[in-house]
Structures
1.
Amino acid sequence: MTDTSIPDSLRLSLKRLEEQISLDVQNWREAGRIVTSSEIFIRRPDPSYYYSVEPGMMNEIPPEDLEVEVWDLANLNQFYKTKIESSSAYQRVLDEVVQG
């Protein structure tokens, strides 16, 4: 479903900004400039579920380890300042939002 409350010109500018950011992230990743760390989470069965047939069933579902790659905040801020904030695509989006 398309949100018609967003003007087409703004939608196009946002799409261009999205494409530019994706390309810049890919370039930074290929150049080895993105600093990340891995965080591991353990997801357990949700005890709020109602197991009507077999209440003990929840205990039979094993926990699941989830590993997530997290972008270092200082490195992310550097990317934002050097690649996004200074881009013409970002400035176009800001101009369109301010204008209306």
2.
Amino acid sequence: MSIRTILTGIICLTVAGAAHARRIEDWSYQRLLETSDVVVIVTLEKVKAWDKPLPLPLFADVLEAKCTTFKVEGILKRKLSSDDLELVHCHWSFI
């Protein structure tokens, strides 16, 4: 494979990636604090599979839901009802 082919491939991938990118705003810590509902300092406790059905049944075969539990170490904004915080998130299961 020639260097010209490799460079062409890299340029095509770079341009294609940039063409579909969206601009992400830079937010100051002050703006994040003002617009957030809860601000906490946490440590990771565990990650487990989420056993409830996904809210997006169309993607159920390619998405895998996880439930991550955090231990709340400090609260910067708003009180929580417990010392643990659970975050349900999905990721592509075929990767």
3.
Amino acid sequence: MIGWVILALGHDLLFQSALLMSSTKATAQVTKIGMEHNTCIYQFSASQQAYDGVGYECGRYEQGTEIKIYYLAQFPKISSNLYPGTGLILNFAVSAAAVLVCLIVGFIKRRQD
């Protein structure tokens, strides 16, 4: 089970780490709202090309609202509306909670045997 947690969060941890080390700040426009988990779709321009990204905690905005985002200049498909590093903290907290639950379940199963 711990392996599945690491696999599920691994790519996001990698992206957030890269954004923390080297990101470019830009303005994006919210293009779609009303999605699951208070997310939205935003669009921004980099190197004269338009890119879409998924934003977190932005479901309260209206379509067309401008938001700040951070992206990798070398690979603009990697972007986030969260301040670089924020996603790392959240993912580590989720990972730690998942590992703790696995340990508790394993401990309870051992005691039952």
4.
Amino acid sequence: MSYSFSVAADTKAEAKVQIAAEFDRIVSTQPIHAADREVAQGAAESFVDLVSEPAENQTLVVNVHGSVSWLNEDDFQGANVGIGVQIVAKAQE
């Protein structure tokens, strides 16, 4: 099973709240991801911690994708996660 999501936030704290909400959604629809949620969410939050706090004219964008493969719930054969974190200029209104 695989997942992919992006969040955009004005602060690092807000980004972490949105990341947690996305993992809540993923686990509710793909319960097998309860197995890798802690490490994947922790990795995403660690990358958020790595960058500076966005300025007022900036947005923090986080992209996360991952997957697990298994024979049964106790026999995982593979797992991966990819994370991108970037501070970008806010879109002009």
